[in-house]
Amino acid sequence: MTELLGLEHVTVRKKVRGSRAGEIEILRDVTLGVAAGEVLGVIGESGSGKTTLARVIAGLERCSGRVVYEGLERGSVSHRAWRSVVSGGIRLLFQHPDQSLNPGRTVLQTLEQAFKLHRREVRDVEAEAAALLERLGLAASLLGRRPAGLSGGEKRRVAFARAVATQPKLLICDEPTSGLDVAWQRELLRFLLELKESLDLTLLIITHDLRLAAAVCDRVCILRSGRVVEIAQREQFATGRLRSEYGRKLLAASLDIDAVAFARGWVSASEPVRRRRAQ
């Protein structure tokens, strides 16, 4: 498969007040490739560097080392030029929707801005926005509302709609199912996989949910204290045949990781997305 994005020896350091060392390493010598069209999962305990890795890929975090996107190396252009290139093809879906939704804009205005910023020619913006909401199980009547008038689940799905409205090549999802009930987790993931096929998306999913990673990811990257411990294929991960002791401990701590059967039964692209009331 063609590599869409590559990281080589990427390190992120942060200054810490009162620390004798003066700074700490959030990411340490990370080398990772993301193939076009794959679903890559990133797991690890809190503080392992998952979100920082996502921010580096999205061009929101400065780092040392090499980052290459579609053949263009980050260090070969200015930071501003790099952000312009990356923002056109990579979208980061934040864990908390309030981070990406402007409280002063209606849902329609939010989606319209996404269409315009990424030069998408849409003849009927309202119809396109309504259709996108419909695919996420939301009524078109929400188009006139602002974030304050939406429930938590509705805001989550509007943020999701905003991200995919730009038709990115790489979509980074930070804990996409966090806070959703099991039924909506399945619906959202099914929609995500349908979009992957229809838009030829590459997905990077950051999650604490090991079952989710085993169910939908082609490969799983395991982080610990900012380092890549192991990168495993789906069935290798799902069946616990991992090389690293840390990876095996993560799986052992999970209540249920029989993911070979789980993956085949939980998400089915052939099953239509049904509209449910937002949680």
What does this protein structure show overall?
The chain is of the alpha/beta class and 279 residues long. Helices cover 37% and strands 24% of the residues. It contains ten helices and ten strands. It has helices at 50-57, 79-89, 107-117, 125-135, 152-165, 182-199, 210-216, 234-238, 245-253, 259-266; strands at residues 3-15, 23-35, 39-43, 64-69, 72-73, 90-93, 170-174, 202-206, 219-224, 227-233. The strands form two sheets. A six-stranded mixed sheet has the order 6-7-8-3-9-10, with helices on both faces. A four-stranded antiparallel sheet has the order 2-1-4-5, covered by helices on one side. Strand 7, helix 6 (182-199) and strand 8 (202-206) form a beta-alpha-beta unit. Helix 3 (107-117) packs parallel to helix 5 (152-165) and helix 7 crosses helix 10. The protein is globular, with a radius of gyration of 19 Å. The N and C termini lie far apart (38 Å). Mean pLDDT is 86; it is low at 257-279.
